[in-house]
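[job 4417] fold queue: 2 targets
>>> target A
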Amino acid sequence: MHHIKEVRSQVMASFDAYLEAVCAECGIAAPDSLGDGIGDVASNKGPVSYALSRQQRFAAFKWFSSGASAEIVETFYVEPATKGHKSGVKLYSLPHAAASTCTVNPFLQRWRTVIGGEADTAASAPGFTELSAVLASRGQVNTTSADQDALIQLLRADNEYLHWTVVEQADELKAVKAKLKSIGTQTPTLDALFANNASTSIPVPENQETLTLDDLPSWAADNVDRIVILPRALNGAKKSQYQSPETIMRALELLAGPYRLLRLGELSRAEFDAAMNEAGVQLSGSVAPSIAGEQGDSYYVTWAGRRRFLEFHLIKGGGRDERYCLRIYFFWDEPSKRCIVGQLPFHLDNSLS
């Protein structure tokens, strides 16, 4: 079996132009005939498998190209949040096909013409199965099979349970490390021996340590060009029982500073991770939209006239005791290039509560 892979970065074609190219190649009536989700559609090449999310500008396709070439074709188009658009094609010729046929595949030629951009020889080319799993894990998938729907819901629940188990175990490990450090030994830790160069860290402003939650409204007003703290979050701060208000302020500065710079492409992931470690918090997705939907409006806020999902949160501590468990729920607003904080500092309910 012969294999050809080509990935292009900084592509010139729009997401819609890519969909039109795939539909034209496969004889699919129009992109509108493809519903968002994971499924199969009939075409002049036989069944075409697809994974599609227009909201996330995410598409992957797979089909069998019969004839002299006898190839399996896989292609994708993604728009990462912090990187340029990418698109790729993978061709697998079957054992009886000639080695040279892969180079003249008609879709490969069509794709190169439509996509433009630059060939990225160092980029990976994930397969259709991997990409479908990524889309399913984001919790925004419809499928054409009831069995697939049930399986995905089960996997989501398992993933959510494992996520919180790992978080709580990590918090327990940190607590043990803190106790060991309090013994007073002068022996350097492995973390200290292998710490990143100080030049990569993003220090918290000096006055951040002196701020309290009483200062949050004025701080939010002063930093509105970098971050938005919605009234619901400000009200939550007034009722806060969390034992370390300075940690909340450090976490908000992390969102206003390093995280925003990461999103704007002005900070590397390693530098952001260093800043996050200094702030003493972790970043993860909140819950799957399907789970959020079971909680009414808890995971949603109104912003710019739209209902928006609080898809991320900063976390510190496990369990449900509001004195020791910190959660800051937010989403990234692409038009204004800011984090919108909708809820803090306590844990919202979910189906695992």
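>>> target B
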Amino acid sequence: MQTRSQARDVHGMDTLQEMQVNGASQAPPREQSSPHEQAPLNEEVMPPHKQVSPPPHVEPPPLGVPPQEAMIQLTQEALLALIRDASTRAAAQAIAQFAAQHPVDLPPPSPRRSQELSSTPRRRSRGRKSPFSPAILAEALPVGVKVSNLPEYDGTGDPQEHLDKFYAKIDWYDLSDTAYCKVFRTTLSKRTLAWFNQLPGGTISSLEQLTQRFLHHFFMNKRVPKTAAFLFTIRQKENEPLRDYMQRFVEAVHEVPHVNHELLASIMQQNLSPGRFKESITGKPPSTMEDLLM
């Protein structure tokens, strides 16, 4: 038999259990915190310059794509977008930093100055002064004028012959002498250009001065004009046809300036090999070269 005290204890425990059950059933449900709920005041807030920018917007996957593949696709696209965004920001910061450290504020060169720079010898870029005077350096070819097909001199031919060919070409153009100085320099090559570049700076002020120095330096290559005595060496060879000999003699005459035609006819008659043609003109020698060739 239970004692009175034991009965009270059992009754009290039943009452306590009943109250706990009723309290649990009547307790109001706890509200779930929203993901957008404001952070507690005691939580550390990152400053604006250290906050991470939100990932760029990514379009949802098309319909019919399995959830797992869609999640992988969204993750890859978001990662690539973040990489591109970070690369763009890094490049912009690097460019801005370089521009700040290397300021450039130079005015563009004038058209005349650009022409001077293009026509100035390369040696000026190495700190040496051009042989041309400032007046020649400041001269520029007229707009649209291009001088081409000029003879080239490499230092082995007759300098006077090169000048004659040069003048024959530039007669087609109406340019100043200072402009022709620059044009003449373009006809020099190899060691002739090296000779020009070693001239003292600013010592060439005219085309005449340039051509005189050119002829003086390369005078050893100048051909000595042949005289009439040279023509006596142009004799008809044995068994050489008369036509071939006459052609060879005429070519030799072109190398001898200012020769009297009567003298030419007499020299040619003496240089002929014995034969019927020489015998036919022995009694009445031709008075001119034209009569002899006829």
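[job 4417] complete. Note on B: The chain is about 50% helix and 0% strand.
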